[in-house]
Amino acid sequence: xxxxxxxxxxxxxxxxxxxxxxxxxxxxxxxxxxxxxxxxxxxxxxxxxxxxxxxxxxxxxxxxxxxxxxxxxxxxxxxxxxxxxxxxxxxxxxxxxxxxxxxxxxxxxxxxxxxxxxxxxxxxxxxxxxxxxxxxxxxxxxxxxxxxxxxxxxxxxxxxxxxxxxxxxxxxxxxxxxxxxxxxxxxxxxxxxxxxxxxxxxxxxxxxxxxxxxxxxxxxxxxxxxxxxxxxxxxxxxxxxxxxxxxxxxxxxxxxxxxxxxxxxxxxxxxxxxx
Length: 275
Prior knowledge:
The chain has helices at about 10-25, 45-60, 65-75, 85-105, 110-115, 135-150, 210-235, 255-275; strands at about 5-10, 25-35, 170, 190-195, 200-205, 210, 235-250. The protein is of the alpha/beta class. The protein has one domain: 2-Layer Sandwich (Thymidylate Synthase, Chain A), CATH 3.30.572. Strands 1, 2, 3, 4, 5, 6 and 7 form a 7-stranded mixed beta sheet that branches. Strand 6, helix 7 and strand 7 (about 235-250) form a beta-alpha-beta unit. The two termini are about 30 Å apart.
């Protein structure tokens, strides 16, 4: 049964999503989480979640990562120097390209951000080397063009299933013919951007989502991407909606229902104390 969750920020939406997942028995199809402001969090909640994750990392195999690590696979915040203005975009891409060899040591298939800025294109038949396609740059360029034209709506450019070279504000992540795994990377399948009433919104599609191990960090990372695109194109940041075709609380040692219920209670207490 599908679940729909709304939250004012990343933390509120994630906590509400966890509560609904637990009530549904720990799993759901088409979990849809709408975050009104995906650029903000509640620090007390994030601290609780990171503490929970750190305890499990110390106890056994590190199949779970801290929120910051997960978020950086989607958007490496430290490489984005906002004070550079529009020049921050090309600077970010250049730094990512230089760091790619190192990130590949940890992530052999690359990161989600790499897929966004260096989508693999087939080698041309003329024998020339293949060139990767920068999907984020295309999105920013088209949104800038709309702003200069005085156009405040851009969903007419949206194509649900697109190749990066198409004239659309969409970012496919899964490479046809190459990504054949039924589990694991890439779980994020597609990112779509739309302009409505002069505000940039994002929709992200996950085929599989482990909510505690990846969910919070994924929301943070996606919010960073949306903020980057909005800042670089000159539009305000809108809503992030994330659809998880299959969502689970998570499994393995330390993720029993009792432990997860205690995590949820701790998050709720943190929210109450901060209010």
